[in-house]
Amino acid sequence: MFSEIKNSLKDLYLSDPRPWLIGFSGGKDSTMVASLIFEVLLEIPRDQRIKPISVLCTDTRVEIPAIVEMIEGTLAKMQKCSSSEGLGLDVNLLRPPPEQSFWVNIIGRGYPPPNRVFRWCTQRLKIDPVTAFVERTMKGGKWSEAILHLGARRSESAERARNLGNRETKNNLRRHVDMPNVWINNPIEYVSTEEVWAYLLQRPNPWGGDNRQLYRVYSNASGGECPLVVDESTPSCGNSRFGCWTCTVVERDKASEGLLESGDERMEHLIDFRNTLIEFRNPENGWRDTRRMNGAEADGPLTIKGRRELLKRLLLLQEETGMELVSDEELLLIQKIWKTARDPDDGRGVARIIKKIKGIHMLDLKEVSRLRELQEEVAQEKGICPDTLRRLLAKVEEYSESHKAMGLPDDLLNILKDAANDATQVPQEV
């Protein structure tokens, strides 16, 4: 069976000129696909290895530490093997930009921690980085189409079998749902879990080393991985998975608990903080606004008070573990976003929290006195609250940094609606 899969991959490589993408999550299935492709490339004569190949792996910045360490080591070995053997393959560890990071969305924008109904993290942290890479690669006309190899298997779950069965194939390739220039190949679609482990444990990896560490991680983490998610039809993490230590979509994080039981002491503090996220998500605990951003009466974003408290606890967690959990760039972005929030921050809230927790000074983000005076003068002239004007200005500043205006009018209107809902902040002229 393995020989048949390799022969099929070799035929596709030699007969189809389209470049290849390899989706790699670090789990057993994507490791098997990558191993098969490496073996095929090593068997092809050097002078025929002319196809560009990119390995794509996503790091959400909140991955379980042990998984990150294992994946980074594997990717380094892959790149070294490709360079020494002339495979024409490059390795790409894709991350969401800081403005879309987990902490900027939760602590900055006040998004509630994800659940099964509002699973905003998948699109921003997993799908968007892959889409952005593919769009950048194809933008210059260098590639017109590409083939993406994934480790999806029918035997993983009934949902996975249904999704694979419902997609029309052309020469055993399926068109990507959101990127019409990308075709998906699932070389191990009909391979069972037992056969995957038989393949991985009975031979060394073509890039060096073996899969005993991977097997131990699975044993300790009680199950399967989060796959490389490339579109909304890809099943997200289930109850048996490893991926983000912050995941609040599942009821119990068996992976983190299993790693803690196996001796990874870092997970104790991370598990406790995950429970904190669940606490803050529950409206009954008082950390959520009673209005949504559009002014509708319903469970809304985290309040500024809640965001401040969550940042304090995150920075304390960072001190306890010695791990960098939130970057300086993210902290600066959080401060800027707080200035656009309902009950806006004065521009120094993050700096005060950092000073209290870490005893160090952060860049002073507070507007100079004269600018604040001008804002108050303009607000009085226009008949609106100074805080509302500052929120409007901060929102424009936020959009100006991305050089995009799409969505800005709606966000400004929502700020004005917020003001209109408060009798002391009725805008009369804008």
Description of the molecule:
Helix 10 runs antiparallel to helix 11. With 430 residues, this protein is α/β, with parallel strands linked by helices.
**What is the distance, rounded to the nearest whole angstrom, between the alpha carbons of the first and last residues?**
69 Å
Mean pLDDT reading: 85
Class of secondary structure makeup: alpha/beta
CATH class of the largest domain: Alpha Beta
How many domain units? 3
What does the radius of gyration come to? 25 Å
Quick one: CATH superfamily of the largest domain? HUPs
Q: Could you state the order of secondary-structure elements as H and E? A: HEHEHEHHEHEEEHHHHHHHHHH
Total beta strand runs = 7
User: How much β-strand is present in the residues?
Assistant: 5-15%
CATH architecture of the largest domain: 3-Layer(aba) Sandwich
Percentage of residues in helical conformation: 40-55%
Q: What is the multimeric organization of the chains shown?
A: single chain
Count of runs of 4 or more consecutive helical residues: 16
